[in-house]
Amino acid sequence: MTGLGALAIMALAAIAVASILALCVGRLIFRLDARGAALIGGIGAGVALGPACFGLIAPESYQRLWLGGTGLDQQAAAVDAQTELDAAAIQSAGASPEAAEEHTAAGRSEAAHLRRLAEADRRTRRLGLIALATAAGLLALLGWSGAPPSRPHARWLGLGAVAAVLAALLGAVGARFVVSASITDAALFGALLAGGSLAARRGRSLAVGVGSLTASLIVLAFAAGPPVLVAVLIVGLAWVTGVIAGERSAFKPRWPGVLADTVLAPACAALVLASVTAIPNGWGVVLIVLAVVLAGDTALLGWVLAVKWLGEGRRWWRPLTSFAIVWLRGGPAVTMILLALAAMAGGLDPATQQGAAFAYAAAASAAMTELSRPMTLRWIRTMRTMRAGVIRP
To answer: Which residues in 347-361 are b (16+ Cβ under 10 Å) and which e?
Structure first.
């Protein structure tokens, strides 16, 4: 099976299983809205299609479909073994050493060619999944409705960027001390937790969400390498195009954002989690538990520090609650898109214990944020209503 064919089957399987689980689990059991149910379905699909379920039922099919190049690797190993046997037979038959060496060189060349084909197969799948994650980000941008941030909102763009950097720093410190990650890997994990959001219609809330997403993408590009940098440039071009289009037309369709939130972002989560083959160690499990306990709190704490640092004084709570609502509505999906970019670019290796811990921690944080979002939004609205008569907005 070619890399593109396997990629198409993987994407369709991820979307189908995620949609079924979104309907059965997200909507019927947890009573979530379409966005939250889809993300829960995507994470559940990643577990169902991964080595824990599908890998146990059909291990050969799982390796051939999800890991890629396994058949070619097996053929290369068989060629190496046969080459050694033939070389021993040639020597025992009394042939010259030159003839045995020539036969061995030919066998090694054939095995090396098969391994190059296997790596090309895996590379095709990675680049295809990077394209899927980039498309999700582009559609999220195109589906963003409302007027683009104007020049007076530049301060709030900076606020979002500062908040994302602070949140990424908090997440990086946790990864550094809990799983002893390198500085680059810790920065990558921090960028996943910081994320960003485009789920705002206008004004400073949208500016903060865009600023935080931009800063997270820059940190992720620094940590994950050139493929993510290319994706960042594409998304940045889409952002500029969206600003120009938004200035010329007040109408912006909602369907691209809905498609990104309910189909592509869950597919990204399913594809990444299904490719995780390692089992996190004890400290990795601790990191996952911390991500569940502190779901969303890292980004919100970064915003608290940024707002206080900019000197909002007694009115800090008002922008903070606005930003919290925006992040809760769009942050988990953005986290899954960033996770797919990091994993498929090679910055996060799902075959290692650390990569598995990062993937499961990011997914667990996004899932817990979605599950607790209805209650959190009710609490925020109640707080704003109670304080509206005390502090003038």
So the answer is: bbbbebbbbbbbbbb
Of 202, 200, 186, the closest CA to residue 150 belongs to: 202
Residue type, 271: L
* CB 220, CB 236: distance < 8 Å: no
* Distance between CA atoms of residues 381 and 207, nearest Å: 21
Distance CA(359)–CA(40), nearest Å, equals 15
Eight-state DSSP code of residue 179: S
pLDDT at 391: 45
Tokens (6 digits) for 213: 């997403």
Give the residue from 245, 252, 268 showing the smallest Cα distance to 332. 268
- Residue-wise pLDDT tens digits, 146-169: 555 556 667 777 888 888 888 888
**CB pairs under 8 A, 24+ apart, for 179-182?**
179/283, 179/284, 179/287, 179/354, 179/357, 180/283, 181/354
CA dist., res. 12 & res. 115, Å (int): 27
Direct distance between the N- and C-terminal alpha carbons of the chain, in angstroms, rounded to an integer = 60
Burial category of 311 from C-beta neighbours within 10 Å (exposed 0-12, middle 13-18, buried 19 and up): exposed
Count CA atoms within 13 Å of residue 9 on its CB side: 14
Among the listed residues 210, 369, 302, 276, the one whose alpha carbon sits nearest the alpha carbon of residue 45: 276
Pairwise CA distance, residues 115 & 74, whole Å: 9
Other C-beta atoms closer than 10 Å to the C-beta of 236 total: 14
pTM of the model: 0.81
CB 359 within 8 A of CB 273: yes
Other CB atoms within 10 A of residue 87 CB: 17
Q: Does the pLDDT of residue 254 top 50, yes or no?
A: yes
Distance, in Å, from the CA atom of 209 to the CA atom of 227, rounded to the nearest integer, reads 23
User: Does residue 384 surpass a pLDDT of 70?
Assistant: no
